Amino acid sequence: MPRVRRPWEVRRAGWVLLLALLPGAVACDREGQDVPEGVQQGAREDAAPGTPPAREAPQRDPAERGAPPVALNPVQHEMRLLHEVMLEAVTAIANGNVTSVAKSLHVLHGAKEQTEAAIRAGTYTPPKNGEAIARFIELDEEFHGHLEVIVARSKENDVVGTATALGKALEGCQGCHAEFRF
User: Fewer C-beta neighbours within 10 Å, C or N terminus of the chain?
Assistant: First the structure.
């Protein structure tokens, strides 16, 4: 008959595993460690006074973001660009300087145009509720309205306003995904 482990033995095994992994995890962030290419470490010159050093999201030239890869439909391409831009926005908010966010969001104009063209041509329909394309377009316009607020606040370097507008935009993500993606 197999031996049954007592609860404290299971917990003890978990602690042993945690303690074995902890030194490696702590060492990963020490000075002198290799930092992945494209990630800067240290304080930014444009960060708010007293801001501790932070790792930045890798920045890519908007021109490199071009047309969607062959395997992606226009909406998937727009969502991937949006994901990158949102990560950049969160990093900028954390660093206390959001002036770069407006420029980052500008790359979405071309992707939005490609999405609209695919919808008009009938080459794209959402995976769920595809017959409700008018509602999809309505939510998309509402969402891009939130992005315009993010652009306006970031141009003023209004960190709190940018963060608030970003929160509203993210609420739109969830609503649209619930209705049309999953």
Answer: N
Q: What pTM does this model have?
A: 0.60
**What CATH number was assigned to the domain covering residues 62-180?**
1.20.120
CB atoms within 10 A of CB 133: 15
Asked if residue 74 lies in contact with residue 118, where contact means CB atoms within 8 angstroms, the answer is: yes
Q: How far is CA 36 from CA 16, 54, 56, 85, in A?
A: 30, 14, 11, 20
- The CA distance from 35 to 148, in Å, is 34
> Which pair of structure tokens corresponds to residue 14?
């978990």
Residue with tokens 């939130």: 146
With a CB cutoff of 8 Å and minimum separation 6, the contacts of 125 are 119, 133
* Per-residue pLDDT tens over the stretch 108-140: 989 999 999 999 999 999 999 999 999 999 999
The domain ranges of the chain are: 62-180
